[in-house]
Amino acid sequence: MLDLRFVREHLDLVRRKTEERQSELDLDLFVSLDARRRDVLARVEQLRRERNEVSKRISRKDLRQEERKSLIDRMRAVSAEAKSLEKELRAVESQLDDFMRVIPNLSHDDVPVGKDERSNVEVRRWGEIPEFDFEPRAHWELGPALDILDFERAARMSGSRFVVNKGLGARLERALINFMLDLHVNEHGYREIIPPFLVSYETCFGSGQIPKLEDDMYYCLGPAQIADRGDEPFRSEEWPGLFLVPTGEVPLVNLFREETLEEDQLPLNLTAYTPCFRREAGTYGKDQRGLIRLHQFNKVELVKITTPDASWDALEQLTSHAEAVLRRLGLAYRVVSLCTGDLTFASAKTYDLEVWFPFQKRFREISSCSNCTDFQARRAGIRYRPKSGKSRLVHTLNGSGLAVGRTLAAVLENYQQPDGSVKVPEVLVPYMGGVETIAP
Length: 440
Hints:
- By secondary structure, the protein is of the alpha+beta class.
- It contains 13 helices and 18 strands.
- It folds into two domains: about 5-100, Helix Hairpins (Orthogonal Bundle), CATH 1.10.287.40; about 115-440, BirA Bifunctional Protein, domain 2 (2-Layer Sandwich), CATH 3.30.930.
- It has an eight-stranded mixed β-sheet with strand order 1-11-12-13-16-10-9-4.
- Strand 14 (about 385) and strand 15 (about 390-395) form a beta hairpin.
- Helix 3 (about 25-60) runs antiparallel to helix 4 (about 65-100) and helix 7 (about 170-185) packs across helix 13.
């Protein structure tokens, strides 16, 4: 969330930055709402002062009856006007707040300007793209053939975009999770967290998923609410409703919501394994097969909470930590800087890590590493107290370290053998109980 005064004083900058994001926000509406709010507020404050002055005069004992009556009439008129304007002020402030909630973060100046992913800029590559003396198969063919992935039974239970991991497939998923967590905790210095997987509306607002991404999230209701809600999302004091986390970023960022940290506590480096749940609204027809785009998937998340002056170096470090997973696994990848039109709502700058998929003969996203500057911190109320001066908003960063299902898919495709078996990457063998090959 941006600061209201900043938007007012840097309107041309905000207008340009939102246009570069392909946003259709009408900032003229902000101007009119902000002006009306200030006008009404000024009049309300004037009326309050007048009401206080009249009240003091009424309390004087030397007033004549006619003067007292005139002042009482004036008090009633002032109070009535103030009450009416206070109601209008609340309405205008509510509209203005709703508008501020949907202004995206401002992109960093070195983010490439562009409309969509076609304008993203490759930063670097690592690893050799594997060459096969046979036609490589897709992971959605390899998994069922090895009896480690079952898409058909998952579909019977839950519909499309689900999978069942079986036997060594389940063990490989668990091996990847444990390997990633051990690497980030033991070598990169992150603190492991096991957060709730159900979170409140306010929590999702704090990290920026709501209101922009609410349609892509799963919302949980009690039985009575399901029967009564009709077509509208149901939320009440008795049942506020909870959302299944779409990413571990949501609970990790909000771990310190409405708190003021001491400067010497920073940076905070947090990691968590969570299942993630997404409706994938608006992606009909995309990646309908395999593990790339599921409604439920596992992910190891990285979050950094830093001082503002340290956040850009922290982004480079966080990205290198996600890259380290791919390097240890021996998977070829590239790092891409997202253009303005491809940035997420809360991000000021994002690097995507894209891993090579032999069957598709192209790189696919496996991690996004973002600096959200103070955008999430303002929404979530996360501040720190410098050694001198007033408290300030922290900067928050997040990245996948990595998306587990996509990593498993990349391992299957890159390590497949001519006989249909798959070699286990050397770094995962200890996590697989010594299993070196998954064979039919």
